[in-house]
Amino acid sequence: MDEGRELADFLKKRGLQQDLIEKIQEQKIDCQTLCAMPDSQLQLYIPKLGDVYAAKRFCQELFNRQHKYDRKTSLLEKLRRKLGSKYNKHDVRDEEESSDQRRAKLLGNANASKNERKIELGWCDFNLCSGKYQQVRNKNGGGTREAKVSKYWKAEDILKYGKGLFFPGGVSKKGHELEFEFDIKDFQQSTVDDTATVEDLYKISQMRILRFYVYTRRKQPVVILDMSDKSLEEGNFSGLTTHFGKSVLGLDFPSASTSVSPEAHVPTAITALCATPTPMSDSKTSSTMQSSDSSMQSSLLGVQVDNEIMFSLCAESYNLLSSEESPSVLCNSLPSTATSEVRTLCVDEMDDTVVFESESSESVNTLLPEVPASQINTFQAAQEQEKLPSTLRIHQGNCFTELIQLYQKEEMCLSCCTVKRVLPNGEDEKGEGVGLLRDIFTEFWESFYSKCCEGADIKVPILRHDMGEEEWKSVGRIICDGWSTLKYFPVQLAQPVLEDAVFGMITVSLTTTFLGFIPVSERTIIQAALDNFELVDMNDLLEVLESHECKKLPTPANIQSIIEEIAHKEILQEPRFVIESWRKVFGTNLEIDQNELCDIFIEKQPTVKKILNALNFPDVMDCGQQSTANYLKRFVKGLDKKGMENFLRFCTGSNLMSEKITVEFTRLYGFERRPVAHTCGSILQMPSTYETFSDMREEFENVLSSNVWEMSFV
Asked: Is the pTM of this model over 0.70?
């Protein structure tokens, strides 16, 4: 639309007659001419003085807007010439249209599609102690491997490829592949459809990269005893074999030609694998073995009167015992001529083989008393706890550095240790328990947001030269431990970052997250441009986009796509290294689904309504207590976001919504009058002696504005 047409439309809106407008156009009075004409001459064409000044102001604004546009266009042209861009001869809009036409032309081009897709492969082995599948780590031949495979591969092809990766030459650190049962599962721990190809799975999951796991479980060995073999009577157990061709239980029995002294091979502490009998049909007799220390009898081996005896070793028959020295496993009674080297059950993550030597000639069929089933799973946990210190001292103000160093140990868990916090004056804080742990995690995440993140209301991790992969993995373990033990989750982090790290896909809007990431001043400009592009100040908009390294000129048609592209770069592309580091930790340690993660971000965010609902007052209150309760509710209603976080941290130790806050009343006067909180039980003690709301607000604000709170109650 040209200047003359815009001026005519403006005068028509002001109510000027059509013949006068045509007279102005006949005299070729444009905006520049109208601004230069005196008012006396303009009144010949525009009779009313108010219309004259309005027309001059409109022409001046139109001239300024056109001048700014020409200046910006010239600057862009200079920049393009410096960069050697090809846009000198083409308009930006024409280039976008040609790009869209090229994409539409290539759409469906079978020659351009690739025949290979990238996948990730992991290995999960069944742990007999925990009764669960656990991912095998790099040092044991596992880890996560990346591979490019044919998109037409099916589950059996992926499984075969995985066997070659984790069992090179058919052998791994955990044994020969013939000793295991194999299965292939996807990232959701679901069995993969045998008929689906890799391409089909990508289309169904819509994920950036698919991850598969090779699941292994050791086969149940069946031991065959040939009773007709007289070498058994002579102490030769080399013929005692399993169905996959190894000596039973991995024991190395002496051969018949070896001279063995019975007294030299009788173990005093029986700490190896025990086999309980498998029931057999038509059994005529059975053999029982009695303990030499007690009258307790335990049937260990079912014997069938036949030339062969068959019994099986199953995972359910492994009895774990705990002693003063180390956890051990009950051993099946062996003849006195058996070997002196008895190996313990191979548990996942164990590096060494424990060897027990005989020093006594007591009967080897001595049995140790069984422990309750509730203590069976203590074997692996006890070994891990031996590596951890019993008491941890964490310095207030240095929590960020110390926790990252502690959690570089994969088995680290604060709730498993006695935690003491050291005050800035060097003295130990008296407080302890779950309230102290919540406060330590809160202090860590507040330091993390300020040191390792950018953003206003929503935080996005940034790269630092002193934060490598191990440090970022430590942060991931802190997230997992905080959620599993205290239900503390860093909800100020951008939700798409955590979704990508946990699930490999995002469900929330990147544009909405980006608006919470940028400052309020930039947020107002971007929101105005999205709502009505014509009304936004172009100078301000270009300045905001330039701060985020935008390479396109915004228009009403492309402003939405520009914001989405910038949001993807700032929220997902910039912290990509952090996301990949966390993904390696979350895959095996964070048990959470996508719906639960969305609920956490909603429920944990503090609001005034949630805090008021969390306050639990006594059912019966006197007049003073009722007044204090009303003052407290009024005080909460006036809190901002930071004030609500400080209030929750003072009452519970955590700056997130967690549980009910029990309000109790005290009668304190003078300098003793103050709010007191017990974070372990989430109890807030309020004096009922306040006369006015301003007194209560002043004292509570002084408490919340303090930089350091000391936990002086045990």
From this structure: no
